[in-house]
Amino acid sequence: MIKNLRLLLLGAPGSGKGTQTSRLLEKIQITPVSSGDLLRTEISKKSSLGLLASKIIQKGGLVPDHLMIALIYREFQARNWLGQDCSWLLDGFPRTQNQAVALDDKLTVAPINCVIELDVPEKVILERIENRYIHIPSGRIYNLQYNPPKVPGKDDITGEPLSKRPDDNAEVFKRRLDNYHKKIDPLKEYFKNKGILHSIRGETSDIIFPQLYEYITSEFTSK
Question: Of 60, 103, 110, 153, whose CB neighbour count within 10 A is largest?
Answer without folding.
Answer: 103
